[in-house]
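Sample intake sheet
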Amino acid sequence: MSASRFADQLTAQVANEFAASQQYIAIAVHYDADALPQLAGLFYRQSVEERNHAMMMVQYLMDADADVVIPGIEAPRSAFGDIVEPVVVALEQEKRVSGQINALAAVAREHGDYSSEQFMQWFIKEQIEEVASMSDLLRVVERSRDTPMFAEDFLAREQPGDAGEDATAPAAAGGAL
């Protein structure tokens, strides 16, 4: 796979995942600065999750004996008008990433790279969950636009922190770092 189209596109996806991680940090900082700790915490956790997705991809490239290049990324958006706008950005990002993940799986299938296609299956499942989660959050923050504490209460009640690790997730480079 070292010179394959899939490896090149997976490397580009590493950048996309790191960019998503940075965007989520910017969103978390926005909420943190507005004293909305539940929203901030959610997006800090999302940032770590996206970083780990990038590291899973890095590990796969290393395992497949492909050249690994860590691409640079652009600065994330950091200014938002209200509590809804960051979630709109997050949902758009998750939908975009879903398309990128599906395209990667399609490239693997097209080239008969069954190992890479198998690797992408976990990410496809993960993206379905991510889009659904951000869609739900968008509905909550839209209803809470004028009273952000309603969104905070919802998150405290419905999403009490980390749900734990997914035993089916690919290994990430650096392990438990």
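Comment: The chain has one domain: 5-158. The chain has a mean pLDDT of 92.
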